[in-house]
Each structure stands twice: as structure tokens, then as C-alpha cells.
Amino acid sequence: MRLVLLGPPGSGKGTQAKMVSEKMGIPQISTGDILREAVARGTELGRKARSYMDAGQLVPDDVMLGLMEKRIGEADCARGYILDGFPRTLAQALGLDEILSRRGEAIDLAILIEVGDDTVVKRLTRRRVCPACHALYNLDTDPPKDDNRCDRCGVELVLRSDDEETTVRTRLNVYR
Ligand code: AMP
Asked: How far is Cα 119 from Cα 6, in angstroms, rounded to an integer?
């Protein structure tokens, strides 16, 4: 099963992808997670991506397509995968078609999750993430047990830098 999840930031793509991934035993490929990890590790990809991400802008298509071609070719993708956050532009969608046709593969299903802007802003500005294990919380709907600390690691939760309200609004405009 090769799935694409589409929808604005904060629509729940990552949450849904994680559940489908566990149920079907296929990997969730989150381009946002891959890029954040690269930024944290200071790799060449991270250096290229950082300024775009901090500004809420999209990382250039050629960078994303190179990254995805490599990732889809890895062994754990043989039985399928869930794309979460990719493709995000027409050029990426067309590039994905090319990569897949070279591999003799095709996407089985694309699911669009629709959520209004005000809901997204509320969800993301109240979202907190554990910098150690990347677990997600929401201060209103899914708060940590202990005040602002990860239930699993005990580490202090943070607001993702691109979840600040002004950056969220930019990300939404970029998405629309
Ligand atoms: P996300 O976690 O999916 O909201 O992604 C966080 C940030 O990573 C985005 O605001 C972009 O800067 C970058 N990013 C993630 N996926 C893509 C993509 N497919 N194309 C370009 N930039 C992306």
C-alpha cells in the first residue's frame, strides 16, 4: 500500500500516518521529520533546509526530490509506505510520478484532510514536542501528566520554532 496524506500543517497527517504505519507495518515517511533531524545533526541537507524551515517556506523541489528518491529506494519501503508532507508542490508531484514510473510503482491512494485555518492556528500554537523522543502533546487536548514535561522522558517540552503564530500563518499561506 503506497499512500499519500495531504492537508495543511496541523491537520493531523502525522498522527494518522503513525496509526496506519503501526497497523499495516509500513513506514511513515515524514519529510518534516527527516529535515528536522538533518538540521539537528548539522548535515549538508540540514544546512540547506534550515533557513527555509525557520521562515515557514518550502525547501526547494530539487532538494526534496533527491531526498525522496533515496528514501523510497530503501529496503523498508519494499511493501509500501505512507508519505506525510510530500508532495507539496506540483513539481514535487510530477517528480514523484517520474521516480515511481522508473521503479514500476504507483501510488494507491491519496487522502486529503481538510481543516480550517483558525483550527490549525489554535492546534499548532498549543502543540508541544519532546526534543528527545519527538512525542507530541497539545496543552488543551492531550496535555502531559507532569507540567510541561514529556511523559516518557521527563524532558521539558518545547514549542517548535515554526509553530509560533506568525510562522504558522506563513505556512498556511504557503500551503493554500
Ligand atoms: P512539516 O513538519 O511537514 O510541517 O514540515 C516542516 C517544514 O519542513 C516545512 O515548513 C518546510 O519548510 C519543510 N518541508 C517539509 N516537507 C516539505 C516538502 N515536501 N517540500 C518542501 N519543504 C518541506
From this structure: 17
- The angle formed by the CA atoms of residues 112, 117 and 118, to the nearest 5 degrees, is 135
Would the CB of 52 count as within 6 Å of ligand 1? yes
Is 60:122 a contact under the CB 8 Å cutoff? no
Active site residue 47: no
CA atoms within 13 A on the CB side of 93: 7
Is 145 marked active-site? no
103 has catalytic annotation = no
Distance CA(45)–CA(58), nearest Å, equals 14
Residue 20, exposed/middle/buried by CB under 10 A (0-12, 13-18, 19+)? Answer: middle
The DSSP symbol for 74 reads: S
Tens-digit pLDDT profile for residues 111-156: 999 999 999 999 999 999 999 998 999 999 999 999 899 999 999 9
Question: What is the model's pTM?
Answer: 0.88
DSSP state letter for 157: P
For atom 12 of ligand 1, which residue has the closest CA? 53
Report which of 110, 117, 145 is spatially closest to residue 13, judged by C-alpha positions: 110
CA atoms of 36 and 34, how far apart (whole Å): 6
